[in-house]
Amino acid sequence: MRLGYIGLGSMGGAMARKLADAGHDVTVYDLDAARVAEATGSGARPAASAEVLAANVEVLFTSLPGPRQSAEAMPEIIDALPASAIWIDMTTNDRDLVLELARRAEARGVATLDAPVTGAVDGARTGNLTVFVGGEDEVVARVRPYLEVLGRIINCGPLGNGNVVKLVTNQIWFVNAAAIGEALVLGKKAGVELGVLWEAMKNSVADTFVTRHDVPSIFAGHYDPSFTLSLCCKDLRLIASLNEATATVAPMTRQAHERFEAAQAAFGGDQAELMVCKLIEDASGVDLRVEGNWPKPWEA
Fold it and tell me: What is the rounded average pLDDT for all residues in the chain?
C-alpha cells in the first residue's frame, strides 16, 4: 500500500524513516524542509504539500505536536484523502478531537485509528516502540504489517482508547520523573554514591522505565532534549482534562504537573524534559553529575 507520513519531528521522522528503510512505499511532508530531506535519505519521497500527499496515499500517518495543530491542519488533509483510505493518528492527542475528526473522515469513507506511541526516540529509531491502537479490529489488521515495523502493538479497544492509554502511561512517567530527582538528591546528600544508588534502584521496587532509561540523562547533565518541557506540559494538560472529564481525583498527578510547569517557567519550554529534576538540584545546592560515557538516546 502507498503510505504517507505527515509530521517529521523527533518521533515522526524516525518512524517515517523506519518504514522507508523497511522497503515500504513512503511519501513524506513536513513544514521543515530539512526534516523532509533527512527522510528522503532513507528512500522516502517528498510531497509538495500535506494535501497533495494525502490525495495520493492509501494509508496516512500523522505525528503532529498536539491537539491545536491537529485541529488546524487535519480537516483539509482529511478532505483530500481518497475514499477507502486509512488515517492513523500517532499524535498524543485529545480523545474528543480525534473522535470529531474521525466523524469527518468517516463521512468520506476514510477509516481512522488513533495510535500514539511510547518508547522514546531510541525506540522509534530501532523499531522498539509500543503502539497503543484504538479502533476497529478489521482496520487494525489491514495496517498491522506497517505498525509492526515500528514496534509492539497493544489493541486498546474502541477509537480514542489509544490516547487514553497513552495519557495514563505518561501520567505514571511524569510522576516518576518529577520524583526521581528528589530521590537521587536525597541519597547523595545522605552520603550514598550515585552509581551505587542507581544500581540499587534498578534491582529493587524502585525499578521503572524512568530509572533505567532516564537517569543516565540526568547523570550526563543533558536531561534528554529529545522531548521538551513544553510537550510534557501539553500532555499533562491533556491528562488534567481527562481527569476532569471523568471526575477523577489525582493529587499526585496535579503536583507533578505543577513541578513541570515550574520547570518550564524556570528554564523555558524548549528545554529538556528531565530539567524538572534540576529544580530540586538547584533548590538543594547539589548536582547529580556522574562521570561516565552516558548515552544520548536521541542518537541511538
Answer: 96
In the chain, residues under CATH classification 1.10.1040.10 are 164-299
List, by residue range, all CATH 3.40.50.720 domains of the chain. 3-157
Residue 298 and residue 10 in contact, taking contact as beta carbons nearer than 8 Å: yes
Task: Record the cell numbers describing residue 117, joined without a space.
Answer: 506511541
Task: Write down the pLDDT at residue 300.
Answer: 64
Nine-digit cell at 138? 478489521
Res 43: pLDDT: 94
CA distance 168 to 25: 33
Write down the CATH number for the domain with range 3-157.
3.40.50.720
Q: What angle do CA 291, 295, 300 make, to 5 degrees?
A: 170
Question: How many Å apart are CA 275 and CA 278, to the nearest integer?
Answer: 5
Helix or strand (DSSP H, E) at 6: strand 3-6
Whether the model clears a pTM of 0.90, i.e. scores above it, the answer is: yes
Return d(Cα 203, Cα 201) in angstroms, integer.
Answer: 5
What confidence tens digit (pLDDT) does each residue in 87-126 have?
Answer: 999 999 999 999 999 999 999 999 999 999 999 898 999 9
Closest CA to 12 of 60, 78, 83, 75: 60
Quick check: 116 and 90 in contact, CB under 8 A?
yes
Would you say residue 295 has pLDDT above 90? no
Architecture of domain 164-299: Orthogonal Bundle (1.10)
How buried is 204 (Cβ within 10 angstroms: 0-12 exposed, 13-18 middle, 19+ buried)?
A: exposed
